[in-house]
Write a structure and sequence with these properties.
Blueprint: H1 2-7, H2 17-37, H3 41-59, H4 64-67, H5 69-99, H6 104-111, H7 113-131, H8 134-140, H9 146-186, H10 196-205, H11 212-230, H12 233-243, H13 254-272, H14 276-288, H15 293-328
């Protein structure tokens, strides 16, 4: 069983302890179950979106300060549904690798799954603040009145929107660095590293017979990859220098691939913190403490600083390797 699970993974290097020992094994069993039923990976991804979004119902009413242990139970149910959605999101990729049913739309759909979970959760937490804000008002010395509630809720909406933008940028960068690591480690077959030029050509090749939803997904994916490229100029420079000299990643000099792999591996742990497990841990913590608005501030300040650090370090070693490549050739 362990050998079968390992075959369904992208790489053990890119998964943390929780993923390797809990999420991936559970996802593998769900992948086997869905495979027996003949489900496609895309169907499993959609199921994970529904399950993750459903957690918002419970987070909206999960206040110990107001509802006692019932509120705690609602928070924990919301956390369980988010965790289950993550397992299912893992299962769709494992199912695709086990069944060989890889599709372009599946890659795009998988990329937006996290947004489908967190957007309803964030909306639910805004509603929760609107209904229950005594703790925050007490800290700030604000008298609870209808006008103060509306003004404070409007501010929270703006903070939440900024937090959501930060979350999107962090997940986008984390996914890109994950695929870059796999690209140099396992080559094109073991990675899903995309570029906007190729995605634009795919979009242009689509015809009127292509389903509208697929064309819309592909169009949005062009922007997604373009934003990944804009924030990683030194990595783009390195790829350009190597691609101008070699026909594929398998032809890259072994010392270059090893140098990139070792440098990237040092950052994988920090990169993982920008993904689901760490984000969900502080979300549930602040929800249990009855101050979920602090999760938004944590996202904006702490997680943005972490993203800057990961990006800065990654760009630094990419510049060093690119300088070496251009100098030697």
């Amino acid at each position: 069983m362990k050998e079968d699970i390992s075959k369904s993974l992208k790489s053990s290097e890119t998964d943390d302890w929780l993923d390797c020992h809990l999420v991936r094994p559970a996802g593998f069993r769900w992948a086997l179950f869905f495979n027996r039923l003949g489900f496609s990976p895309n169907t499993v991804t959609i199921i994970s979106m529904v399950v993750g979004a459903a957690s918002a119902i419970f987070f909206a009413h999960g206040c110990y300060h107001y509802d006692g242990w019932r509120g705690v139970a609602f928070n924990l149910i919301g956390f369980f549904l988010l965790a289950w959605a993550e397992v299912l999101d893992c299962a769709d990729g494992q199912l695709a690798r086990l069944s060989g049913k890889h599709t372009r739309s599946g890659r795009i759909l998988d990329g937006i799954a996290g947004y489908a979970w967190y957007a309803p959760v964030y909306a639910a937490l805004i509603y929760r603040f609107y209904r229950h804000h005594d703790i925050e008002f007490g800290w700030l010395g604000i008298t609870d009145s209808p006008s103060a509630t509306w003004i404070a809720t409007a501010v929270v909406i703006l903070v939440t929107a900024l937090s959501g933008a930060c979350l999107a940028a962090q997940q986008r960068l984390a996914d890109y660095y994950l695929q870059a690591h796999l690209y140099f480690l396992k080559g094109e077959e073991g990675s899903e590293l995309d570029n906007s030029a190729k995605q634009r050509e795919i979009y242009k090749s689509m015809t009127r017979d292509t389903p509208l939803w697929e064309r819309l997904f592909q169009f949005s994916y062009i922007g997604y990859t373009r934003r990944q490229e804009r924030i990683t100029p030194q990595f783009q420079r390195l790829l350009k220098a190597l691609n101008e000299r070699y026909s594929s990643v398998s032809d890259f000099p072994s010392e270059i691939r090893e140098d990139f792999h070792k440098s990237s591996l040092k950052m994988i742990g920090y990169n993982d913190m920008l993904t689901f497990n760490f984000r969900t841990s502080y979300l549930i913590l602040f929800c249990l403490l009855d101050v979920p608005v602090l999760a938004f501030l944590f996202e904006i300040v702490v997680m943005s600083l972490l993203m800057w650090y990961v990006n800065h370090r990654h760009e630094s070693f990419c510049k060093r390797i690119a300088d070496m490549v251009e100098k030697d050739w």
